[in-house]
Design brief:
The structure is a single chain. It is rod-shaped and about 60 Å long. The protein contains 1 helix and no strands. 90% of the residues lie in helices and 0% in strands. The chain is an all-alpha fold. The longest helix is centred in the middle third of the chain and has 44 residues, at 2-45. It starts with a helix and ends with a helix. The chain has one domain (1-49).
Length: 49
């Protein structure tokens, strides 16, 4: 009985890991873009002497 009960949990865990991994990959793609935009924002908001 316990192995049967654990099967769906394991499948859910794997599915969650896949989602987390794809989310992480998406984040890795987005972070450099956000960093560049943040730099532009900072540089443009700096007072010019």
């Amino acid at each position: 009985m316990p192995p049967q009960r654990n099967l769906p949990e394991n499948k859910d865990a794997v599915a969650t890991n896949d989602k987390a991994l794809s989310g992480l990959e998406l984040l890795m793609d987005v972070i450099p873009i956000l960093v560049e935009e943040y730099k532009k924002l900072c540089y443009s908001s700096l007072p010019t002497f």
